[in-house]
Structure formats: structure tokens, C-alpha cells
Design brief:
By secondary structure, this protein is mostly helical. The chain contains two helices and no strands. The protein is elongated. The model has no long low-confidence stretch (mean pLDDT 78).
Length: 74
């Protein structure tokens, strides 16, 4: 029975800490943009995005360079 006297206040402190952390994160803008992080996971970590040159201009899909197969060795 004496364990409950410790566990209930401890659980209430943890719950209050969780509610405070959620409110703090919401006020700081943590949940403002939920779509961009999911889109970033699709791209590689390279600086250049597919379909873009170093200058930042987009390459049309039809003229984008294709990977060439290695030459056949004899």
C-alpha cells in the first residue's frame, strides 16, 4: 500500500512533464510543417536534386542524361 503513495505522485509528475513538453513544442512551432520532413526522406543527401543542374535550372525529362551501360569487354 505504501508503494501507491509513491507511484501516484510520480505518475502525475511524469504526466505533467509530458503535457508541458507537448505545449512547449507546439508553441515553438515543432508541429507547423508536417509534410516537408516526409518529402525530404525521399531525396538523397546530395546537394543536387534529380533533374537539376548545378546552376539550379531544371532539365526537361526528355533531355535528362541517362546512365550509359559499361562498354562490353572482349
Amino acid at each position: 500500500m505504501s508503494v501507491i503513495l509513491i507511484m501516484i505522485p510520480g505518475a502525475m509528475v511524469l504526466a505533467a512533464l509530458g503535457v508541458w513538453a507537448f505545449i512547449h513544442a507546439a508553441k515553438k512551432g515543432q508541429f507547423d510543417d508536417l509534410d516537408t520532413p516526409a518529402i525530404r526522406a525521399v531525396f538523397d543527401d546530395d546537394d543536387e536534386r534529380p533533374g537539376q543542374r548545378e546552376s539550379g535550372h531544371t532539365i526537361p525529362h526528355e533531355t535528362a542524361p541517362q546512365d550509359q551501360p559499361p562498354p562490353a569487354s572482349h
